[in-house]
Fold this protein.
Amino acid sequence: MFGKIFTLKGFTKRDFFLWGGSIVLILASFFIFDRENFLSPISSVIGVTSLIFIAKGNPLGQALTVIFSVFYGIISFSFNYYGEMITYLGMTAPMACAAMVSWLKNPYKDSAQVSVNRLKLSELWIMIPLAAAVTVAFFLLLRALGTANLLPSTVSVTTSFLAVYLLFRRSPFYALAYAANDIVLIVLWAMAAMEDISYFSVLICFAVFLANDVYGFISWLKMDKWQNEGNSEKPDNYIKK
């Protein structure tokens, strides 16, 4: 199945416009504000590509998230954002691997599209305590490490955990959690950019991510409606066995 997810079948003109426009903004901000740290545009392009695939429910997006996490962890370390580094390398990347396995095991009608899952209200009793425990543990760890901008860094951990958990559970609400995380990260990197203007390109990256996550939420709501209306037709990205 993994070899079959390398497909752009089912992508619309809107998808390509958002994808291409995002990349143009990322590269433009790099050449205007940075021009030195090439890890920034590379990681951003990988990140926005992962988001467009995730918005289509394609497991390839999870594989790209792992790669993005490595690059972003390095960038975060350069500004002493240890919370971001630990979150993405120690939590986001491993959970993206788990989510990819979950998505590959739950395709919708033999397509490259994951089967959307509707969470039961009772699952909140699992997710919320886990998020609280992760938040407290990371706050203590990040404080001990002398993390820059401790409070927003801790909030970023919480929103990141909720996002990757919901991705693993195949819920459309992952996108709202990631959108909240994007807003926190825009604030974090705005603070960094006040000290070093080159980090403004990273801020632009997460502004672009925010737009893509909003689009992802809309896309997943449409996927959910399609899949649960009992359509006998195959989705656009159907893969023949």
Residues 200-228 form the longest helix (29 residues). Residues 100 and 233 are 25 Å apart (CA to CA).
